[in-house]
């Protein structure tokens, strides 16, 4: 049974008894948002991360979703990417292509992978340029309160240190306010060179989901969600707070095991 609620800034928590149950709920959530966006805007602009998120999203490629989702209307982006060749084992594009995109009829021209023949800085600039063109045509929406793109859905994982996308604790990339896409060359999680959406872009989305499983992330989940006060480190995941959008945390029991909010305690 999923336990839902929202102790922090209107965020919704969906805590699941098993990873399988979480994966089904996540597929339902994505399919529903896709349907709403296609109905309202004619497109579904979705940005995905790397890591365990991709296998947790796997059910979206299975029945019934593989037949019911309007795949032709999907426009797919990466919240962050490692600066490696697209066929490299570390590539987030390769992970998603092998695990998801090769299994459903998405339109190849709607898959916005990062240019892998450039430096991190050039690739970030080019990705932002491409996004700006798509915002002009409204394929990707535009935020009412900033000049940022407004993705229909941004899907994030979270590391045990509380990083999301390629935004790591205490890194200067967290302070980036002007760029939509930035780059880092010193990622504490290998590989070191990455490009990433900035916080203003993540927080301009209509919907953001953070998908976290496993007891090794329970401390970070607690610090990201509970009312811990200023003496604790401000984790990047805690800075996810959509301005006009909706935030949902998908957690399994081990990841949620250190949450203090009484209604979520074991
Ligand atoms: O490219 C990356 O490294 C990711 O986009 C990163 O932000 C990931 O989502 C988290 O590190 C969680 O990864 P796991 O779910 O595998 O722990």
UniProtKB/TrEMBL annotation:
Enzyme class: hydrolase
Pfam families: Glucosamine_iso (PF01182)
GO biological process, one term: pentose-phosphate shunt, oxidative branch
Keyword Hydrolase: yes
GO CC annotations, alphabetized: cytosol
Pathway where it operates: Carbohydrate degradation; pentose phosphate pathway; D-ribulose 5-phosphate from D-glucose 6-phosphate (oxidative stage): step 2/3
Protein family (similarity comment): Belongs to the glucosamine/galactosamine-6-phosphate isomerase family. 6-phosphogluconolactonase subfamily.
Protein name, UniProt field: Probable 6-phosphogluconolactonase
Organism, as annotated: Nelumbo nucifera
